[in-house]
Amino acid sequence: MEFCTRRTTSILLIVTLLASAVATPFQTAFAGTPGDDLKQIEYKYYFRGKYQQAIESLQTFLARVDLTEPDITRAREVLAASYVLGGAPAMGKQVFGRLIAKNPGYVGPDPTVFKSEVVDEYALARSEYASVALKNAPPSASTQDDVGTAAVLSDAGAHSGKPIYKQWWLYAGAAALLLVAGMAVGGDDGGSPLPGSGGVTVGVTVH
C-alpha cells in the first residue's frame, strides 16, 4: 500500500513538472504587457544578434490579440530588420512593404537605432510602393480641369491673334487719315507742303 502511494506521488510529480515545462515558454512569452514583452524580445534576441530567435519570437508575438497599432508597427519593424540582418533582405523589404501599405504615413525605421542596411531596404520598399501607387492612380479632377483650361486658352489665342493695339491695320488706318488731312491743308495754301513750311509730316511705325 505504501509502495503504491509513493508510486502515485511520483507520477503526479512528474506530470506536474512536465506541465510546468510545457507552460513555461508561453508564460514567458506572454508574461507582461505587449510593450514590455516586445522590449524583452528586442533586448534578448535582436540587439544580441540572435536574429532567427527574434524572428520566431516576433511571429509569435504578432499572433497576440491584445496588441495596439503602435505595438504591431514596432514588432513588424523589428521583424523586418531581423530578416535583413539575418541574411534575408528580400523578406525584410517585403515586411516593410506590407507595413507601408497598411500605414502609408509610416516614416521608416529610426536610423539612430537601426543599421544602414535596414534603412536601405525600407527606402527600396518605399520607392516601390510609390511607383506602384503612381501607376495605379487615376487622373484627378483638378488635373483634367487644368488640361481643359489650357486647351481653351490656346484655342482662343489662336483665333483672336494679337491685341488690338498691336494690330497693323490700326496704325495703317491712322496714317492714312493723317495723310489725307495733310493733303487737304496743303491744298488750301495753293500747293503741296514743303519741309519747314508748316506742313504735316507723318511717321508711322508698324509693329
What are the main properties of this structure?
single chain, Serine Threonine Protein Phosphatase 5, Tetratricopeptide repeat, rod-shaped, 8 helices, 2 domains, 207 residues
Description of the molecule:
The structure is a single chain. By secondary structure, the chain is mainly alpha-helical. It has 2 domains: 20-136, Serine Threonine Protein Phosphatase 5, Tetratricopeptide repeat (Alpha Horseshoe); 161-207. The protein has helices at residues 2-29, 34-44, 51-61, 69-85, 89-102, 116-136, 141-160, 168-188. The longest helix is centred in the first third of the chain and has 28 residues, at 2-29. 16% of the residues are buried. Mean pLDDT is 73; it is low at 15-29, 146-160 and 189-195.
Please give the count of helices: 8
State Rg. 43 Å
What are the segments in which pLDDT stays under 50 over at least 5 consecutive residues?
A: 15-29, 146-160, 189-195
The CATH topology of the largest domain corresponds to Serine Threonine Protein Phosphatase 5, Tetratricopeptide repeat
Mean pLDDT: 73
Oligomeric form: single chain
User: How many β strands by DSSP?
Assistant: 0
Question: Which class do the helix and strand fractions yield?
Answer: mainly alpha
Helix content: 55-70%
Short description:
It is built from eight helices and no strands. It is an all-alpha fold.
